[in-house]
Amino acid sequence: MCKGGCGMKSKSVILSGIRATGRLHFGNFLGAVQNFVKFQQPGNTCLYFIADWHTLTTFQDPKELRGNLIEIVKDYIAAGLDPERSIIYAQSSVPEIAELCLYLSMIQPFGDLVRIPTFKDLIRKNPNNVNLGIVTYPVLMAADILGPRATLVPVGEDQIPNIELAQSLARKFNNHFGDTFVIPDMMMQMIRVPGLDGNKMGKSEADNAIDVNSPISVIRERYLKKGITDIERKRAKDPGDPYNRCQSVYPLHELITIGEAETRTIATACLEARIGCVECKHRLVDGIDKILGPFQEARAKLADKNDQIREILHEGGKKARVLVRETTMVVREKMGIVIH
Ligand code: ADP
Ligand code: TRP
């Protein structure tokens, strides 16, 4: 195990996916992609994919889906994912994942799927298309994870019920058909990046996200106009309460401002009314710029490299397929399915 309690074993298979429902936002970047990058170390097998089948459960614009997929992979690469050290692929390029999902669905009770909080959340956000794909969403996710025998799945806390379901499916299958699947660990260090309104930053939430590819001037304007601070603090000379009342700006400072001392300086200045919310927002955006500046520079170089990205996806798909096919063959055989 790693000392930080992240659940990492010495030989880990790290796997995570992102849906292609939109472009990457700063919450995805800090909460997911930056971790993905850190895992690329000798001894680790890293698999990072775009969950395009999962995307279809709620997002069915073919042109946008295709575009998002390519653009997110550009974001991955610009953020530091290296196709030489990580297997980067589209879920749909591994058909055995769908086959594995079918086998797993045979041992998954229906009732659990409609009680899981992630199901309730998806239908709350998509009341007009409560399709079967939404019901089986966690089973497909279990196939994503169990297929390549992932040992660790870094995801945000909203995904915990889905990972627990994958763990329970793996245990159930192993008990019934004999040891087959690796039980994946969840990553315990998870952050929640606040959006401009203080709720969790998300693509689908009410315009509260910062697009990682927005010019910094646009990000600054968005924070100045929409970033919610301490609503009880009426004037800059009133003391603020960054810890309890500031909704979006100070909590993000805590996540990105380098060094505890620097973060504490900002908090103390706010508590003592030595810094106003506008100044605090400027400092926050300067911090965002430090993180996104180098990223955006690398990203600009990939703008017209669609063919290169397709090639990366093609190669990644082939590698992932080898891993998933191996598991699927074992599952087929254990369940009594033979190829004639
Ligand atoms: P969204 O919620 O915007 O649709 P996704 O569900 O596609 O984003 O999330 C992709 C990954 O990014 C997941 O691992 C998720 O937990 C993580 N993530 C998304 N939003 C945040 C956030 N605000 N803070 C931390 N991690 C996040
Ligand atoms: N459901 C995940 C999300 O919305 C995306 C995802 C699909 C995923 N399959 C996965 C994440 C497998 C981790 C492992 O964020």
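^ adenosine-5'-diphosphate complex. The two ends are 44 Å apart (CA to CA). Confidence is low (pLDDT under 50) at residues 1-6.
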